[in-house]
Amino acid sequence: MEKNIEKIKELLDDIRPFLNMEGGDIEFIKYDDGYVYVKLTGACAMCTNQDITLKENIEAYLKEEIKDIKEVINVSL
Length: 77
Fold this sequence. Notes:
By secondary structure, the protein is α+β, with helices and mostly antiparallel strands.
């Protein structure tokens, strides 16, 4: 599981520049039993397209790279 966490963090670092270009960012919260919990921040937190960004881009990319991932969930803390 620790290996997956490190890989998830690396992959999120790959995605981060694209979110930053739009004034947003992503924060890793935790990985638990195939579920990745993240927090979209900045412009991404208020964007009406955040669900599309999360599912069609971030989740699809992580699932492609790590087969154990079931879902990526945006949490508001």
